[in-house]
Amino acid sequence: MALSRDLSAPPVIIEAAINGARTMADNPNVPLAAQEIVDCITACVEAGASVIHMHAGQPIVGAGGHHDSAMYRDVFMPALQRHPGLLIYPTLPGGGPGTTMQQRLSHVRGLAEMGLAGPVPVDPGTMNLGRIGRRGRPPANSHVYQTTFADVDWAFRFCNQAGLPCTLSAFEPGFVRLVEAHRRAGTLPAAAIVKLEFGADEVLFGLKPGLRGLEAWLDLFDGDALAWMVSLRDGDVNDLLAGLAIERGGHVRVGIEDYRGPAMPRNEELVAATVRIARGLGRRPALPDEVRGLITVNFRCSQERKE
């Protein structure tokens, strides 16, 4: 299906997070093998996605802080041959004591040297990482997901030196406040998008999905100067949150990685559902070659508000 280029309204960037740590037991439609992933990327682009996020080889965020770029090369290369200009990015390996941002982004550096790098993933903050258990028990682990101020500063300098865009997951409010501080200081990468993270009943980060949660996020930064999208890690973003974001000029992340619900959807079905919501609200899905322009950071725009 060919997607039209209608310039009457700002288009919506739809990111498809196609696998993550999901297994066939979670959803038999999750793409895990290289060819499955390439075919899924094509289906998602044809449905309306313009950014792809994927895990390859190591489905769970690595504890050692390092991933091999070869795992991603084997997917990125054929996918980009099919879809030149598509933005595809890998996972960010876990951070913690003994890891460095240089290690964690070594696979991205390798992809950049091959001409295959898309957005650089940066989670700009540190948090306790966990989920509510099946019987309602809170986690009792000692897992701290760490990205220090120095890590963020290094990552932003890497993006600027390499001329690469940046995708930022704001799991907690302080994360996006740091991003906004870098924007004001002029040190944020020239092209960037922040993902506002929401959690319903399972994950223990982000804000509750709904209007109040979204408004709370948007009060922390200048949404006219920095592109943003919503992400729901334990539900269906298309139930409510996607529409709220699209109405307010935002963008949307969907996909099997994040979806939790009774259905077993395919990634392209989740993308198509977001497209229907966007078109119903007068916006069309962005084309891959439009994304960089849509995420260009405005460093001159001020967030000063009148009391």
From TrEMBL:
Its cofactor is Zn(2+). Pfam families: BKACE. The keyword Metal-binding applies. GO terms for molecular function: 3-keto-5-aminohexanoate cleavage activity; metal ion binding. Keywords: Metal-binding, Transferase, Zinc. The keyword Zinc applies. This is 3-keto-5-aminohexanoate cleavage protein. It comes from Vineibacter terrae.
